[in-house]
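Bug report

Summary: structure tokens for AraC family transcriptional regulator differ between web form and batch submission.
Environment: batch mode, default settings.
Steps: 1) Submit the sequence below via batch. 2) Compare with the web form result.

Sequence submitted:
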Amino acid sequence: MSGHRIPAGIVNAREASAKFSLVRHPPAPELRPFVDHHWVLRWDLTGREPHEQVVLPNLAVNVTFFRDAAGAFGPGKRPFRYLVGGVDQGIGVRFRPGAFRAFLTGPVKMISGGSVPLTDLFPAAGGVTESVRNATNDFEMVRVAEELLLAKHPVLTPAARTAIEAVETIAGDPAITRVGVLSSRTGLSQRSLQRLFAEHVGAAPKWAIQVYRLNEAAARIAAEERLDYAKLALTLGYSDQAHFIRDFRSVTGWAPTEYALLNRVQEQENRRE
């Protein structure tokens, strides 16, 4: 996966780092075909206002172990919002796009834009979230989560491998801006790609391509203070700036200039604190 675009999508990353800690851990060897990484979240906002964290859409399924968010969350078309308050900790498992089908009884499309309670997928998960919340270190949390996943004895099918490779093809090549190009690169017809992505990714190929393009745009807008949006639009394969702005707003909820201002304002406020 080296060099591939893996959207983090954390809005206001600088502000977020002042509200909670986020640490990523690699999966056990047996889970590497399925899992990208584990992420451990801790926060202590005692005596402070709760913080709403926004995460931009991506293609990953995340299985989370939090007090009020224990379940499998599918890829969505809207930003994910989570309210962080008080004191707590938890862990999430970020799956490789295309790999979660092994843990479901139906297509990944059935959880797109929604979630499934943890106990619906893993009947033995009753006390797992509490065990995670009471864990004294990250590795204890990872162990608890991985034991639950491995108990399913997941198998990566040839079709799942093909889906994973198709997504990695998108992630590894910014020049792929249309489904027709992806079809040529993978050797699969557009109709076959549609079926494959519905079953294993939970999103249409066109949307998958757009997710990578616009997450890349968001990262650049947040990082670069003076950005030529017309040039950025062309770099991302858009024929005109207006089309890029429209797509960016539809995915993130902000126009590019609004998103840039949001990051600049939060950075200045954090410096004053």
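Above is the batch result. After comparison, the two runs are identical; trailing whitespace caused the diff. Residues 18 and 273 are 10 Å apart (CA to CA). Residues 268-273 have pLDDT under 50 and may be disordered.
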